[in-house]
């Protein structure tokens, strides 16, 4: 087709992602992860991630270009994650993207990682309708985005005031003695438990919070409530079901995410919801969002998990939309923005 060929580079956390997209068609998506190196520390170590990006960057670019069977000279534009994320890792990706842009004489586009998590859905489920809501949930972010145009008009209606959803799962996982990252382990336990066994708090849903924080999230109070509940039982030498704790905790997170997202859809007259980010793998969130959205007449789009975790396709997809919208390229001296 006549659409530009866009190369996307993602390095905001522990995944080195490089992808090629033409229009809304994904040609290749190559990814290298340093997660194995972080797992033994129980969290991402920025220095370790930066070094891993530096080592993986050129091979991953070569792998992407080789698999797509294109020549680098055919690339029309370079898109790169400018933020949010870890400064060191972002800097490695930006340096690679700038070098390519200069060497190839092609325009550079610095794009937003969280918006990329929504944009990638277009590669899978086709172009967005006029207005969509996007819930982006991962270990690093929990954001609710109103998308009028993915390239030019995205409004953040709310985000987490403290822990991201995945981060809360990982912290609760640690206190329950589960391996890092705890999210998938809690999910597995939760599927065997009773989600109504314990009534944990629903963050920022009280009437007094609704005005100011209608679409914001807070999960740190919930995490503390789970810790207290478990400690109380342990101190008393009382047995309890780990499965019930996991299920009740996961229920609280899914309930708040889903309720606030659907309220936002109704408030803004939106009937398509995109869910992205690595936490979208969570069973309770998926099931609850599907069931409640069906009732509310909202169409739910959740890309396959490999497009929900960090990857280059999301950045190439957003870059492709931005280039086609005629947005001016970024300056070659753009910096990175950890809190974009
Ligand atoms: O998007 P992602 O791969 O990396 C970040 O950008 O954070 O998301 C990973 C996060 C981790 O916190 C992980 O524990 C969580 O998502 N996660 C899950 C599940 N799968 C991944 N949390 C709950 N249930 C899951 N099934
Ligand atoms: Zn992400």
From TrEMBL:
UniProt-recorded name of the protein: tRNA N6-adenosine threonylcarbamoyltransferase
Domain Gcp-like: residue ranges: 26-316
Locations listed in the record: Cytoplasm
Domain of life where this protein originates: Bacteria
Catalyzed reactions per annotation: L-threonylcarbamoyladenylate + adenosine(37) in tRNA = N(6)-L-threonylcarbamoyladenosine(37) in tRNA + AMP + H(+)
Secretion signal span: none
Cofactor requirement: Fe(2+)
Recorded GO CC terms: cytoplasm
Name of the gene encoding the protein in the UniProt record: tsaD
Keyword check for Repeat: no
Function, as annotated: Required for the formation of a threonylcarbamoyl group on adenosine at position 37 (t(6)A37) in tRNAs that read codons beginning with adenine. Is involved in the transfer of the threonylcarbamoyl moiety of threonylcarbamoyl-AMP (TC-AMP) to the N6 group of A37, together with TsaE and TsaB. TsaD likely plays a direct catalytic role in this reaction.
Annotated positions binding Fe cation: 113, 117, 310
Keyword Transmembrane helix carried by entry: no
Any GO BP annotation: tRNA threonylcarbamoyladenosine modification
InterPro entries noted in UniProt: ATPase_NBD, Gcp-like_dom, KAE1/TsaD, Peptidase_M22_CS, TsaD
Protein family: Belongs to the KAE1 / TsaD family.
Xref: PANTHER family: TRNA N6-ADENOSINE THREONYLCARBAMOYLTRANSFERASE (PTHR11735), TRNA N6-ADENOSINE THREONYLCARBAMOYLTRANSFERASE, MITOCHONDRIAL (PTHR11735:SF6)
SUPFAM superfamilies (alphabetical): Actin-like ATPase domain (SSF53067)
GO molecular function: iron ion binding; tRNA N(6)-L-threonylcarbamoyladenine synthase activity
Pfam families reported in the protein's UniProt record: TsaD (PF00814)
EC number of the protein: 2.3.1.234
CDD domains hit by this protein: ASKHA_NBD_TsaD_bac
Species of origin: Paraoerskovia marina
Note accompanying the cofactor annotation: Binds 1 Fe(2+) ion per subunit.
Residues at which substrate binds: 136-140, 170, 183, 187, 282
Keywords, in A-Z order: Acyltransferase, Cytoplasm, Iron, Metal-binding, Transferase, tRNA processing
């Amino acid at each position: 087709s006549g659409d530009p060929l866009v190369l996307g580079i993602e390095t905001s956390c522990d995944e080195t992602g490089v992808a090629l997209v033409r229009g809304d068609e994904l040609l290749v998506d190559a990814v290298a992860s340093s997660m194995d190196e972080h797992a033994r520390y129980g969290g991402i170590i920025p220095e370790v991630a930066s070094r891993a990006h530096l080592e993986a960057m050129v091979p991953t670019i070569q792998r992407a270009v080789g698999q797509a069977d294109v020549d680098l000279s055919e690339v029309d534009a370079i898109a790169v994650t400018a933020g949010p994320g870890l400064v060191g890792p972002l800097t490695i990706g930006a340096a690679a993207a700038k070098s390519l842009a200069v060497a190839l004489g092609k325009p550079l586009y610095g794009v937003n990682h969280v918006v990329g998590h929504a944009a990638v859905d277009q590669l899978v489920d086709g172009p967005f309708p006029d207005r969509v809501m996007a819930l982006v949930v991962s270990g690093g972010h929990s954001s609710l985005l109103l998308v009028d145009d993915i390239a030019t008009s995205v409004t953040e209606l709310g985000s987490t005031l403290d822990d991201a959803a995945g981060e809360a799962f990982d912290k609760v996982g640690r206190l329950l003695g589960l391996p890092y990252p705890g999210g998938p382990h809690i999910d597995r336990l939760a599927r065997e438990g009773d989600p109504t066994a314990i009534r944990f708090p629903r963050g920022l849903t009280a009437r007094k919070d609704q005005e100011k924080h209608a679409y914001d999230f807070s999960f740190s109070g919930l995490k503390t409530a789970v810790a207290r509940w478990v400690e109380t039982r342990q101190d008393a030498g009382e047995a309890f079901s780990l499965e019930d704790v996991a299920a009740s905790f996961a229920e609280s997170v899914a309930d708040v995410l889903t309720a606030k997202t659907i309220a936002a859809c109704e408030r803004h007259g939106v009937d398509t919801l995109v869910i992205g980010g690595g936490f979208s793998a969570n069973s309770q969130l998926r099931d609850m969002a599907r069931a409640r959205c069906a009732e509310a007449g909202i169409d739910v789009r959740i890309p396959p998990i490999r497009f929900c975790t960090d990857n280059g396709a999301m950045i190439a997809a957003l870059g492709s939309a931005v280039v086609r919208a005629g947005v001016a390229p970024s300056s070659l001296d753009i910096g990175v923005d950890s809190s974009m």
